[in-house]
Predict the structure.
Amino acid sequence: MFYDRVEDLSRRQIVAAAQGKVHRWATTAQILGYAIAHEVGHLLGLSHSATGIMREGWRWNDLLDAAYGDLDFTPQQAAVIRTEVWIRESPETLVDEISFFSFES
């Protein structure tokens, strides 16, 4: 993810609003936040989807959802995220990570 792409998308929305194509747009901060959430979704095992925050290449209606705070993960994606976080927080996983980083003399 590159910030210049976020800024470009923000500018294109403003131009679209000036042309009457959209009536509300997501702020640069909102776009950046959703882009980060999208990338965290990938880190937790999600692929691109046909709708929502994990869609590849957001459309105007996705950005409108973002402007209203409604660009979401699907219920299935949210379940995957919760499971992946639970796995990473489980005591067994933490013990394995500590063992991996321990050095024996």
Q: What stands out?
A: The chain has a mean pLDDT of 90.
